[in-house]
Design brief:
Largest sheet: 7 strands, mixed
Number of helices: 9
Strand content: 15-25%
Helix content: 40-55%
Distance between the termini: 44 Å
Order of helices and strands: HHHEHEHEEHEHHHEE
Strand order of the largest sheet: 3-2-1-4-5-7-6
CATH topology: Rossmann fold
Number of domains: 1
CATH class: Alpha Beta
Length: 235
């Protein structure tokens, strides 16, 4: 357990405290991250990345920056699609546990070591709620993506059907922390369900993406709303 990861009785952190908590948390869970992910999503996270890549419809050979790349799941999917992935992550522990042949960079997605208009696309999986400042993150995407380039932002969702929503809330809020505590770090998997509160509503996030220099913004629910994905094209 790391002192930087808030427990269930602590308020959700902001600013530098949030950055430290996120970095500490993902360093802590890196060794068993893939195993726990597959277990708690029943493998659906793999399907959701495939669906995101299909929605992006990139030209062959596109250079794709995968932000908060973790152990390289999205990088592998990008490579499988015939593109060139470059992974970035704040948590060195995740990069050390990565299973990908992509170039990996230890760095903060709010200040990427990339020149303007340098990549064809950006992907980001299940990390929007972990950034300290979403408008700054989106502005950085607007800076590095070439005009006409694409972004695909995948994260957890909130089902609208009452029965599915109640089951999802119970599973994500009660069962997932127990799975995480059994196989990895209990505090980290207590925090992850709570971190969904950082995500703005779809209409607000759509407006933020447009303000960062993107057009044709789409929002799609995946698997009855268990997951959601935003895609957009750089103006």
């Amino acid at each position: 357990m790391s002192a930087a990861i808030p427990n269930a009785n602590d308020p959700l952190p902001t600013g530098d405290s949030k950055r430290a908590a996120v970095q500490s948390m993902f360093d802590a869970i890196a060794p068993r991250y893939d195993f726990v992910n597959r277990l708690m999503t029943f493998g659906l996270d793999v399907l959701w990345r495939k669906q995101t890549m299909k929605l992006l419809a990139l030209k062959p050979g596109s250079v794709v920056a995968d932000l908060a790349c973790g152990t390289g799941d999205f990088c592998r999917e990008i490579r499988h699609g015939g593109h060139v992935p470059i992974g970035f992550d704040l948590a060195f522990g995740m990069l050390a546990a990565a299973r990908t042949d992509a170039q990996l960079v230890h760095g903060d997605a709010l200040g990427l070591p990339l020149i303007d208009d340098s990549v064809d696309a950006v992907t980001c999986g299940f990390a929007l709620r972990n950034f300290v400042d979403l408008p700054s993150f989106l502005a950085e995407l607007g800076r590095i993506v070439k005009p006409g380039g694409r972004i695909g932002l995948l994260d957890v969702g909130q089902p609208s059907l009452p029965l599915v929503s109640h089951g999802y809330d119970f599973y994500f809020g009660k069962v997932v922390p127990k799975i995480g505590g059994l196989f990895s770090d209990a505090d980290a998997y207590e925090y992850l369900p709570r971190s969904v509160a950082y995500l703005p509503p779809a209409n607000e996030l759509t407006t933020m993406i447009e303000a960062a220099g993107f057009e044709r913004v789409t929002h799609a629910n995946l698997t009855l709303g268990l997951s959601q994905v935003y895609t957009a094209t750089r103006r």
